[in-house]
Amino acid sequence: xxREFKLPDVGxxxxxxxxxxxxxxxxxxxxINQTIVEIETAKAVVELPCPYEGVVASLMAAEGxxxxxxxxxxxxxxxxGADTTRETALADDMVxxxxxxxxxxxxxxxxxxxxxxxxxxxxxxxxRKGRAPADAQASAPAPAQAASAPVQAPPPAAAPVAxxxxxxxxxxxxxxxxxxxxxxxxxxxxxxxxxGSITREDVHAxxxxxxxxxxxxxxxxxxxxxxxxxxxxxxxxxxxxxxxTAPHVTEFxxxxxxxxxxxxxxxxxxxxxAEVKVSPLLLVAKALLTAAxxxxxxxxxxxxxxxxxxxxxxxxxxxATQRGLIVPNVxxxxxxxxxxxxxxxxxxxxxxxxxxxxxxxxxxxTITITNVGxxxxxxxxxxxxxxxxxxxxxxxxxxxxxxxxxxxxxRKVTTLAxxxxxxxxxxxxxxxxLRDVGAMLEDPLRMLAWS
Length: 451
Fold this sequence. Notes:
Blueprint: E1 2-6, E2 16-22, E3 29-30, E4 35-40, E5 45-49, E6 54-59, E7 66-68, E8 72-77, H1 85-92, H2 136-139, H3 143-148, E9 159-161, E10 169-171, H4 173-182, H5 200-209, H6 230-243, E11 248-256, H7 258-268, H8 280-294, E12 300-302, E13 307-309, E14 315-317, E15 319-321, E16 324-326, E17 329-330, H9 338-353, E18 367-370, E19 390-394, E20 398-404, E21 407-421, H10 427-442, H11 445-450
Parallel strand pairs: 14-18, 18-19
Antiparallel strand pairs: 1-8, 2-4, 2-7, 3-6, 4-5, 6-8, 9-10, 11-21, 12-13, 14-17, 15-16, 19-21, 20-21
C-alpha cells in the first residue's frame, strides 16, 4: 500500500519550501519519525520526520526544487496488511518533530535554560560521516577487557556521554547543548580540554572543518545569476515593506564604554559565567531590556488603528548567515538573569550561524539589536524589523581620544544608532531611550539602579 507524504506548512502560513537534502533513497526502509528530508522555508531550514513505516517507493521532488505546501514529496510502501491508522493520522496534521529517543544509552537530561526560547527537544542532525578517527573502533576495549579494567571517574565538571558501541566522551552540559544545536557528533571529536574533555572551541572547530568551500568561478565567466529564494527572498520583501511603510528616523550617540569593557572582563572571571561567551553585546542587550521597561512604548507594534504595547520582550538579534540575514529572538528576555541571558544569546547566535534556527525562533520578536561592530563598522541606519517599532545598532568599540575631567585621554568608545517608527515613537521618546542605553553602557551600575 503506497502512502504519499505531502509537504506540510511548517511555519505560520508558509506556502512553499525548497528541498535542500534527502536523507533517504528509493528502496530504503524508513521508520515512523525518522528524518527523511531537510527543507528550507522563508524562515529556516527544517528537518521533516516520516509519518509512515515501510520502504521508500519514490522521491517526488528533487533537491533544489521549490515545492508548494500540500504537494506530495515522497511515497512510502507500507506493505500489505500494515496497520496504517496511526501513520495516516500523523500525516494528516504533520508538523516537524524530533525523532524518538534512540535505544542506545543517553546521558541524563540536564536542566538547561528553560524559558528563553531555545527548545530542549530541538531536532539534531544525524552524525556526520568521515570525521571519526580511523582507529576509533580498534582502540575501543573489548567487553571482557573493559569489565576487568579499572574505571577512572571523570572530573565532576564534565559529564561523560556514553553511547552504545562508542567510547564515552567528556563534555560539560553547555558544550553538549551547543553540539546538539549545531548537529555535531561529540563521539567524533578529539577533546583538547582537561583529561581529554571537549570544549566549545572543539565543537566550533568541528563545524568549521565541514564548511563547504566556495565553488571556484570558471575562467572567463564575467557574470553570475544567483536565484533569490528562501530566506533572502523573504528578507528582501520584509525590508522593502518596512522601509516604505514605517517612517524611519535614526539617531546616533557616541558613548564612552570603558567601564562596560571592564565589566565584561570581570564577568568572564566569575564562576556563574563559566563556559559562557561574555561579550559587550550582553550588556548592550541588558541595557536595552532595562530601557524597554522604563519606556514600554519602544517595545510595541503598530496595528493600524491602535498601538500594541508589549510588557514582555522577545529580543531579536540580527545574524548574518550563509542563507542571508535572519533575526532569531530570545523569548521573554526581560525575565532572564544575566548568566541565563548570556547563555541564551550564545545558543541563539551559534544556532543561527549553523543554519539550525527553527521557525518558532524567528517569529514573535518585539525589538531588535544588530551588532554591526563585529564587521568593523562604527554605525549605520538599520531598517526596523517588520512588526516592531525600533532597532538598535551597536558599532565597533575603538580606542579614541576622549575628554575626561578636562583632560584628553584614550578611552573605549562606540557608536549607537537607534532607528524607530515615527508613527509610534516621537523624537523625544526615541532620544530618551538612546540616551539611557548610552548612560547605562557608560556606567553599568545604572542598570542596577534602573532595573
